[in-house]
Design a protein that fits this description.
Blueprint: H1 19-29, H2 32-49, E1 53-58, H3 69-77, E2 83-85, H4 88-99, E3 103-104, H5 111-116, E4 119-122, E5 125-128, H6 133-149, H7 157-168, H8 174-180, E6 185-186, H9 194-205, H10 213-226, E7 229-235, H11 238-248, E8 254-260, H12 275-281, E9 284-293, H13 297-312
Parallel strand pairs: 1-2, 1-7, 2-6, 7-8, 8-9
Antiparallel strand pairs: 3-5, 4-5
Length: 313
């Protein structure tokens, strides 16, 4: 028997006085997802502390519709990450929640009734239509018109997103803090959402207006090609996950990688692909510190982020 094996130790709740204590106890317990959560916490903490590491934060829009938006906000406010990659819905929800309210609902509500009441349902979250489409249309159309009249008719998506953050000017907003801290927000699929629809609508009325999506790729390339090391906390999957790992293949892969997802790999989806699969593509280094945490993100992020904040402080 290997003498270097670590024993499983029972968790003693009487010795847990903080969130970082709780995370450490998950490590000594050695069991199932609790151990993976601890490993992800440790890898993320080391990544953030690594001064030579370019740090990516990747997440899908849905989490911004929840109270976990406050946790993402804190990570950006504290400048733990250098670049954000997400989806258009993140812009939609951050704008909407900066000017209106979302409400608690239920997965089993009658959606026909909700539609008649002018309420959108996102899982067990209720979004009044008055807090969403109308608000986004008003704010984005006004901003686009101001930029256009000032002579800006071919901005990059990240330039526009930065101006959205400046426009919001609200500390509850993740885009506000990205703007304030000069952290680029890259949305590779910016047309896939309400903000994207407003950009299309504006273009229909002003045919010499366009977005230069290649400028954002240039921004990422400048970051990646200059980086000694890189790492990412990747929440969920989809285009934001893939764009993050895709670009990191050009520097021999991520050196730190933490996936938090409930998707499985057996349908061949990118969202469910494990970190080990990315190694075969060169998107994660074969010497990287990496882990898959198989947990729905909103259930673990409060402990995870609070532990990081406590320890990093």
């Amino acid at each position: 028997m290997d003498k270097n094996l670590e024993k499983i130790i029972d968790i003693d709740v009487n010795k847990i006085d903080s969130f970082d204590d709780m995370l450490e106890s998950m490590g000594v317990a050695g069991g199932f997802n609790a151990r993976l959560i601890y490993d992800g916490y440790k890898i993320t903490k080391n990544m953030i502390n690594d001064a030579d590491c370019l740090k990516f934060l990747s997440f899908p829009a849905s989490i911004i519709a929840t109270g976990n938006r406050g946790l993402i906000n804190e990570l950006i406010k504290r400048k733990y990450f250098d670049i954000i990659i997400t989806t258009c819905g993140t812009l939609d929800h951050d704008i909407a929640r900066s000017y209106g309210d979302y409400y608690k609902g239920d997965f089993d509500l009658d959606d026909i009734v909700l539609d008649k009441q002018d309420i959108h349902r996102l899982g067990n979250i209720l979004i009044p239509k008055s807090s969403y489409g109308d608000v986004i249309e008003d704010k984005i159309s006004t901003l686009l018109n101001e930029l256009y009249l000032s002579g800006i008719n071919n901005p990059s998506p990240s330039f526009l997103i930065d101006k959205i953050g400046k426009m919001i000017d609200n500390e509850s907003s993740i885009l506000y803090w990205a703007h304030k801290n000069n952290i680029p927000v890259i949305v590779p699929g910016i047309m896939d959402g309400a903000v994207g629809s407003q950009i299309w609508s504006f273009y229909e009325q002003n045919k010499n207006f366009s977005l230069d999506i290649l400028k954002d790729q240039h921004i990422i390339s400048d970051y990646v090609f200059k980086a000694k090391k890189s790492g990412s906390l990747i929440i969920g999957g989809g285009i934001s996950k893939h764009h993050t790992i895709w670009w990191n293949q050009f520097k021999n892969g991520l050196d730190y990688a933490v996936y938090i997802t409930t998707a499985n790999e057996y349908d061949g989806s990118l969202s469910g692909a494990r970190t080990r699969e990315a190694i075969s593509w060169g998107k994660i280094s074969n010497s990287a510190k990496h882990v898959n945490i198989n947990v729905e993100a909103s259930a673990i992020l409060p402990i995870f982020v609070k532990g990081l904040v406590n320890k990093l402080n």
